[in-house]
Design a protein that fits this description.
transport, disordered N terminus, mainly alpha, ion transport, elongated, single chain, about 75% helix, about 0% strand
C-alpha cells in the first residue's frame, strides 16, 4: 500500500452505513425496556397490567419516532456532505452516542409516570438528553457547512445558512419541552409529538425548477 493510499479519508457512504446500523440498534433496544412488572395470576390481572403500561407504550412511540426523525434528517444532511474528516467523524460519534443513550431516559420516564413518583425529574432528564443530541446534530452541520467546508454543489452557502437556523431551533424547543416537564410529564411528551410532526418535514430550502 502506498503512502498516499494509506491516507485516503473515510468515504461518506461508509460513515452513513455505520450510522444507519447504530440508529437501527437504538430503535431495537427501546422495545427491551417494556416489561411486565411481575407475573399476573389471571387473564384479568394480565389485562390490567398491560393497560397500566400505557406510559411505556407512549414513551416508546415517542422515542421511536424521535430516533426515526433524527435518522431521516441525518440522511438529508449527508445528501449535501461530500467529504469526511476526523473532526466530523468525532461529531457524528457524539450524535450517535446521544441516540443510543435514549432507551435509558425513555425507561426512566415510563417508570416514573407509571408509579407516579419523580415524573417531573424524569421528564426534564429525558428532555435534556434530547437537547444534548440536538446540540451535537447542529454542531455536525455547522462544522460541515460553515465556509462550505465539506459540502458539495447540491446546496448553496445561503441555503446551508438557512438550514443552520432552521435545524438550530431544535435544541431550543427541546429545552422548552423539558421545562414543560417540570409541570407535567405527559404534557411534555405531547409537546414532543407536536415537535415531531414539524421536524419530520423536509426543512431544506426548495430550489425552483429550471425551465
Amino acid at each position: 500500500m502506498t503512502k498516499t493510499a494509506a491516507r485516503q479519508p473515510m468515504s461518506v457512504g461508509r460513515l452513513e452505513a455505520f450510522s444507519d446500523g447504530v440508529f437501527a440498534i437504538a430503535i431495537t433496544l427501546l422495545i427491551l425496556e417494556i416489561r411486565l412488572p411481575g407475573e399476573p395470576e389471571s387473564d384479568q390481572a394480565l389485562l390490567q397490567e398491560l393497560v397500566r403500561l400505557w406510559p411505556s407504550y407512549l414513551s416508546y412511540a415517542v422515542s421511536v419516532l424521535l430516533i426515526g426523525m433524527v435518522w431521516m434528517n441525518h440522511h438529508r444532511m449527508f445528501h449535501h456532505i461530500r467529504q469526511v474528516d476526523g473532526f466530523l467523524l468525532l461529531l457524528n460519534i457524539l450524535l450517535l452516542a446521544s441516540v443510543t443513550f435514549l432507551p435509558f431516559p425513555t425507561h426512566v420516564l415510563a417508570e416514573a409516570v407509571h408509579v407516579q413518583r419523580g415524573e417531573h425529574t424524569a421528564a426534564v432528564f429525558y428532555g435534556m438528553v434530547l437537547v444534548i443530541g440536538g446540540v451535537f446534530y447542529n454542531a455536525l452541520w455547522c462544522y460541515a457547512s460553515i465556509g462550505h467546508r465539506l459540502l458539495g454543489d447540491t446546496i448553496t452557502p445561503a441555503e446551508a445558512a438557512a438550514l443552520r437556523i432552521r435545524w438550530g431551533m431544535g435544541p431550543v424547543v427541546y429545552l422548552v419541552a423539558a421545562a414543560i416537564g417540570l409541570w407535567s410529564a405527559v404534557a411534555s411528551l405531547v409537546f414532543y409529538v407536536l415537535l415531531l410532526l414539524f421536524y419530520f418535514l423536509d426543512l431544506r430550502p426548495r430550489r425552483a425548477d429550471v425551465q
